[in-house]
Amino acid sequence: MKLFYKPGACSLASHIVLRESGLDFTLERVDLAQKLLENGDNYLKVNPKGQVPALLLDDETLLTEGVAIMQYIADRVPDRQLLAATDTLKRYKTLEWLNYVATELHKGFTPLFRPDTPEEYKPTVRALLEKKIAWVDEGLNDQEWINGHRFTIADAYLFTVLRWGFAVKLQISGLKNIEAYMARMAARPSVSAALAAEGLK
User: What element of type H or E holds 161?
Assistant: First the structure.
């Protein structure tokens, strides 16, 4: 398999999950601004959506959208317990978190990264994100991971998006549960390896 990624983007979550899975994969960095691969090829010929992540399977099937990619990887290695079995409520609670991160957090950051967002709108965006991240902090109370006491694919996604919160200096540094959670995540071998491979700290 080959993962198309941009360092620090949402593709980091899929990258972490791939390392957790133990499956063989390679990485291909994408210049999203220019839509180019490292060798200069047009990325739009690989993924017409022009976004990352994209996962090229061994049979040349292309899978896009991070939430789908992470579920696919997790289901390939059920013994790793990255996502609970289909007949369990635990699975759907993980999917609940995945969807919250995707729709309420991930997309919430978009206006802060777009150059055409009016400056007067950004404080509203930041305040909404800070409120939602504070709610996540409450959800982590007395929990090692976001869905209880076992790491899941939702943690890879949440960690990736929370990194953006620190990068844009949201008022979240005093959230003790999140600070402890980010330290636990950074200590996982899969996370440190993914960060190192992408040239991130």
Answer: helix 153-167
Pair 25, 1: CB distance under 8 Å: yes
Give 3-state DSSP helix, strand, coil % of the chain, rounded to 5: 55, 10, 35
For residue 96, give the amino acid letter. E
Mean pLDDT, the chain cut into blocks of 10 residues (201 residues total): 98 98 98 97 98 98 98 98 96 97 97 95 97 97 94 98 97 94 98 98 87
Residue 169 · residue 181 · CB < 8 Å: no
**DSSP assignment of 3-33:** EEE-TTSTHHHHHHHHHHHT---EEEEEETT
Residue 68's SS3 state is helix
Peptide bond into 53 cis (omega under 30): yes
Residues 6 or more apart whose CB falls under 8 angstroms from that of 11 comprise: 3, 4, 5, 52, 53, 66
